[in-house]
Amino acid sequence: MEDKLLQLYNSMIVVAMSNVRNQSDAQDAVQEAWVRILTKHRTLRERDKLDAWAKVITANTARTINKQSRMTYPLGDRDPGAEELYCRRDEHRIMMEIRELLESLDSRTRALLLYKFYYGYRDQEIAAAWQVPIGTIKARIHRTKHRLRQWMSY
């Protein structure tokens, strides 16, 4: 149970970071979201949708915090380094999408992609480690990349 809550917290942080300017605001957004979740938990109709519900509450809370901070810094007086923070926010959003795509894959396919693209192993090295023909590795990578492209286009 504790692992599940920690995983939910981490997901909420990622959502918050994609909607605010800095980590402090993200943590504030998650804290406020937890308060809302705990006070409104009876409104959740389907318990298996808790993750999605928490992410929506977090995103809405983060957007509210972001709007409030925009009022604090009028357009001409932007917080120094705001551009960098906006770039990081977009980077977090992309990383979250990639993470969700990887989590949607079965564990073997996810491991294959991580070995190939994250750790930088060559196809032949993966094939030798998994004791399968290199053609099998190449075909799996090709099919998975094709499937991910289809999912990303939706």
TrEMBL record:
Keywords: DNA-binding, Sigma factor, Transcription, Transcription regulation. NCBIfam families: sigma70-ECF. Residues 96-147 form the RNA polymerase sigma factor 70 region 4 type domain. Belongs to the sigma-70 factor family. ECF subfamily. It comes from Paenibacillus sacheonensis. InterPro entries: RNA_pol_sigma-70-like, RNA_pol_sigma-70_dom, RNA_pol_sigma70_r2, RNA_pol_sigma70_r4_t2, RNA_pol_sigma_r2, RNA_pol_sigma_r3/r4-like, WH-like_DNA-bd_sf. Residues 15-63 form the RNA polymerase sigma-70 region domain. The keyword DNA-binding applies. The lineage of its organism: Bacteria, Bacillati, Bacillota, Bacilli, Bacillales. Pfam families: Sigma70_r2, Sigma70_r4_2. It comes from the Bacteria. GO terms for molecular function: DNA binding; sigma factor activity. The keyword Transcription applies. Gene3D superfamilies: 1.10.1740.10, Winged helix-like DNA-binding domain superfamily/Winged helix DNA-binding domain (1.10.10.10). This is Sigma-70 family RNA polymerase sigma factor. One of its GO terms (biological process) is DNA-templated transcription initiation.
